[in-house]
Write a structure and sequence with these properties.
The complex is a heterodimer. Chain A is α/β, with parallel strands linked by helices. Chain A has eight helices and ten strands. Chain A has a six-stranded mixed β-sheet, sandwiched between helices. Chain A has a four-stranded antiparallel β-sheet with strand order 2-1-4-5, with helices on one face. Chain A starts with 7 loop residues before the first strand and ends in a 9-residue tail after the last helix. In chain B, a hairpin with a 2-residue loop joins strand 2 and strand 3. Chain B has a six-stranded mixed beta barrel with strand order 2-3-8-5-7-6, surrounded by four helices. Classes of the chains: A alpha/beta, B alpha+beta.
Chain lengths: 248, 417
């Protein structure tokens, strides 16, 4: 079945990534990755350490350039874009949630949420504050809105990071081990929040995780092994659906 | 967040506030540097203007004298010299330099009128000056007498300011003497003093003023009489031994002197040519001031740069995060340039205040025995402005390297740490 471009948030075609090109130490970490993420999908990217998950996430997040292959964000090809255009595309279409060092300690929770819009608009405004406050409310941190990020617990910080990732209404949110630094209860809470945001806003999520328990709660599980997609399955436990997407 | 503030300003100030100890230390360092620059600059400028004033208060900027008399070599036209042949065209081997007698500037009134028409010339005063003796009873002292027209001469020289008794407005029966000479001769205001010159002129004059130039030699040797009295005493009836000239900008005196010499054929000496050593001393002072400024500026720049380089390393993950969330390289560049500029500006403001404090302290300490200031130091507000602009510029330049480093950070690498 052919998907229309409108329904596709992310398309990867034959993505290769090599480091130290032209040197004796040249190493290729991604070997022709093809991947399509549809609008509203909630997918987990799993795989052993060194399998290329973070590299792939950086390429998808336009933080790194592939050595070969094509990348489309919401149908827009990215290979010809210059650094400033990539920055603008990243700001408008992609949200990030990291495991560590997610917030700027010099800013309050509310201000951290405002930052992506602030960078794009160039100066703060009331609409920006209102939007950030709404998101802070949605992640249940209104009482903590004016607290510096260092005053918040790890779980609370990740909630703020989720709000910040959504502040620009991105098409795609990339989360790199978002619960890796949290206890089980906080991890579940953060995961539930991402799931809620996915359902409410229809935002596509791609979550890198080592935690099989959390991966099993995603709609789709993509496994990367040695720089190749080893398996890409719709999660039967979640969708009660035995469709599987086979990849060549 | 203030809606009027741009993103880069907000980020720069928050980063600086976050690392407040580093910020305070470097701002303190810059402030100390700026205070040294402000203090030294004001001190040297005060010292120079004081020297300048002391030099120009008591001498005219240009002195116009009659051309020197020269002995003409005797030509051997009649073969009388050394029994040479008639057509040998020989000249005398030894030529005795001619002694310079006191002469008047030829047609000095016309020259004066001509000078007054020149652009930039502000005052022209005719003077008759020569050597003489003051005599009282058995005591006598050699003096330089200067005959002046008070209405022009007192605009030329700050004699009025140095009068401690009486007045400098001499009439034909008056004489104004220095305090040391008055002591030596045992005279006071209203006393009579006889003045005799080598040409035989003698006059008994009444002391109408006593001055103190703050220089013992000048106080002992200088006397002022009226122009006509000096003409009579020095046997220079109707003449003026020199014309003394002031111009609007003292530093153009040499050029104007050369113009005068070309136009009149008279000898014109500017204060610049007669005070060459003074000028080289001023130049040396200015050079040392520039060197101090350069090294203090360099130290401040290196301090700011090192703090920002450390800051870039410390904040690399935050920079990566900002890049990931839509901040462009140019914005990152501006954030760090702004930090450098702000550190320089804050340092300069604090430093200027400190410099002003040091100057106030100096004024309180550096005094003459009579309690008057050693020399006048004025705190020029423009110095404050230049310090602010200079330090901001130095801070911005110092931040270029760290800012470029921050802007070039690979966000993926930075976030991964």
């Amino acid at each position: 079945m052919v998907e229309s471009d409108d329904a596709i948030t992310l398309r990867l075609e034959g993505i290769h990534k090599a480091y130290g090109v032209g040197t004796p130490a040249e190493i290729e970490v991604l070997h022709g990755v093809d991947l399509i993420l549809k609008r509203g999908e909630f997918a987990a990217l799993i795989g052993p350490s060194g399998s290329g998950k973070s590299t792939l996430l950086n390429i998808i997040g336009l933080l790194d350039q592939p050595s070969a292959g094509k990348l489309f964000i919401t149908g827009q090809p990215t290979e010809q874009l210059k650094d400033l255009e990539l920055t603008h595309l990243r700001a408008s279409e992609i949200g990030f949630i990291f495991q560590f060092h997610n917030l700027l300690p010099a800013f309050t929770a509310l201000e951290n949420v405002m930052l992506p819009r602030l960078a794009v608009l160039g100066h703060p405004d009331e609409a920006m504050r209102k939007r950030a406050a709404e998101l802070i409310d949605k992640v249940g941190l209104t009482p903590w809105a004016e607290h510096k990020s260092n005053d918040l617990s790890g779980g609370q910080q990740q909630r703020v990071a989720i709000a910040r990732a959504l502040v620009m209404n991105p098409a795609l949110v990339l989360a790199d081990e978002p619960t890796g630094n949290l206890d089980t209860k906080s991890a579940d809470s953060v995961f539930d929040l991402m799931r809620d945001m996915n359902k409410i806003n229809g935002t596509t999520f791609l979550i890198v995780t080592h935690d099989p328990r959390l991966a099993q709660r995603c709609d789709r599980i993509i496994e990367l092994v040695d720089g190749r997609i080893a398996s890409d399955k719709v999660n039967l436990n979640v969708l009660k659906n035995d469709d599987a997407i086979s990849h060549e | 967040m203030n809606p009027l503030l741009p993103f880069e300003w907000i980020m720069a100030t928050r980063f600086m506030r976050e690392g407040r100890m580093q910020t305070l230390l470097i701002v303190g360092g810059v402030a100390l540097g700026v205070s040294v620059i402000v203090f030294i600059s004001a001190l040297i400028s005060g010292l120079q203007s004081n020297l300048f004033r002391r030099t120009l208060d008591f001498q005219a900027q240009i002195i116009i004298l009659p051309p020197e008399e020269v002995a003409r070599p005797l030509r051997d036209s009649n073969s009388n010299l050394g029994k040479q042949p008639a057509n040998s065209n020989q000249t005398a081997i030894l030529v005795q330099p001619r002694a310079q007698r006191l002469r008047s500037v030829d047609q000095w009134q016309k020259v004066r009128d001509q000078l007054l028409k020149m652009k930039n010339v502000t005052v022209v005063a005719p003077v008759v000056s020569g050597a003489g003796f003051v005599i009282r009873a058995d005591a006598n002292r050699a003096v330089t007498l200067t005959g002046i027209e008070p209405e022009s001469y007192l605009r030329l020289i700050a004699l009025k300011d140095k009068i401690i008794a009486g007045s400098a407005n001499v009439t034909s029966s008056d004489i104004v003497v220095g305090i040391e000479l008055a002591k030596d001769m045992g005279v006071a205001m209203g006393d009579k003093l006889t003045l005799r010159t080598a040409s035989g002129g003698t006059a008994t004059l009444i002391i109408s003023g006593i001055f103190d130039f703050g220089n013992k030699g000048q106080n002992q040797r200088s006397v002022y009489v009226s122009f006509r009295t000096a003409q009579s005493l020095l046997n220079l009836a109707g003449g003026a031994s020199s014309l003394e000239v002031n111009v609007a900008d003292p530093f153009t005196a040499e050029t104007i002197a050369q113009d005068i010499q070309a136009q009149t054929g008279l000898k014109a000496e500017s204060w610049i040519s007669t005070n060459a050593q003074f000028f080289s001393a001023l130049a040396a002072q200015s050079m040392s001031n520039t060197i101090i400024r350069f090294f203090v500026g360099l130290t401040a720049a290196l301090g700011i740069a090192s703090v920002l380089v450390v800051s870039v390393v410390q904040k690399s993950k935050e920079i990566g995060l900002l890049r990931a969330t839509g901040t462009s390289r140019r914005q990152i560049l501006r954030i760090f340039l702004l930090q450098g500029a702000l550190m320089g500006l804050m340092g300069s403001l604090v430093g200027s205040l400190m410099g002003w404090g040091f100057l106030t302290l100096w004024r309180g300490i550096a005094k003459n025995a009579d309690g008057t200031p050693l020399f006048v130091i004025n705190f020029d507000p423009m110095l404050f402005f230049y310090a602010a602009v200079g330090a901001t510029l130095v801070g911005t330049l110092a931040a270029v390297f760290p800012a470029l480093r921050a802007a070039r950070l690979d966000p993926a690498v930075a976030i991964r740490g």
